[in-house]
Amino acid sequence: MSMPKIYIAGHHGMVGSAIVRRLLASGHSADALLTRTHAELDLTNQAAVNQFFESEKPDQVYLAAAKVGGIHANNTYPAEFIYENLMIQANVIEAAFQYGVKKLLFLGSSCIYPKLAEQPMREEALLTGTLEPTNEPYAVAKIAGIKLCESYTRQYGDAHGVDYRSVMPTNLYGPGDNYHPENSHVIPALIRRFHEAKANRATHVAVWGTGRPKREFLYVDDMAAASVHVMNLDKARYDAHTLPMLSHINVGRGEDVSIAELARAIAQTVGYVGDIVFDSTKPDGAPRKLMDSSRLHRLGWQAQMGLKQGLALAYKDFLFTEHMRSV
Ligand SMILES: NC(=O)c1ccc[n+]([C@@H]2O[C@H](COP(=O)([O-])OP(=O)(O)OC[C@H]3O[C@@H](n4cnc5c(N)ncnc54)[C@H](OP(=O)(O)O)[C@@H]3O)[C@@H](O)[C@H]2O)c1
Known about the structure:
alpha/beta, binds NADP nicotinamide-adenine-dinucleotide phosphate
């Protein structure tokens, strides 16, 4: 049998590029991977998306393209976050169906769960409470993405063999991360901060909050491996562990770490030897955010990368990225 032609939407992004790495490493031919940059194909443009699917006719789609950003960007551009994400998903999923794609995997996010969801957060917590207001428009779009996948499978599964699934990653880090000084997630932000403190021989680094909140982090190549695993799961096995209207799958390490422990681990990775000061005048956010990934564990997948080793690889990627920026 010939290799499936796979379209990875968002292949320049952190997750999309890791999915490409994973598919290549598992023996998939580069010729059978389809990619388009944002400049080549704007996924909010329905006509362009239809034309792409009509001419390329992929067999499978990984939908890892999205407008993503931190709290500040989500608060400042809520219209763009909801509109662009709804359009990307609706265009890609409908075109996939129209042009005969049987298998599609949609990437969501843990922000789909209610702000006060019981910890660890189970898939069943979806639509049981009020969302975190800062990224509500983004989360609503992601929830719509899950429901698009479920609805297409429910309506067209039996008659057309459509099997569209979705995965919800916890916080990710690793190669391809965004190390922007003001607009990055906690791991890349602390890597930069400790790296610069070491270079400047700073005596202390201040970290926001008490250091007590606990968060979960997954190395992005583990996320890519989980995505390929879920895409390729036998349908009967997938169906046995999901419900038609509760089909999304959490992807996490199943362990969390306090911000203080994380900061110490990053300082050690970077080789920063000064003090770490926790600024308790700054807000902590939720005390704990952990996904319950037992559904995925029952489906035969576990994370491989330990935090220490993952941080060492992430720091290497930071150094490489900084080097490339400077040449
Ligand atoms: N990173 C995390 O910690 C994390 C955690 C949970 C879930 N996720 C989910 O994983 C998915 C991928 O995230 P990521 O971290 O890989 O984000 P990312 O690095 O920003 O990648 C997203 C990609 O989508 C592309 N894109 C955005 N709008 C587009 C459009 N209109 N047309 C075509 N391409 C477009 C971007 O291209 P440009 O950059 O050129 O615009 C970028 O290459 C998202 O759905 C996100 O919610 C990520």
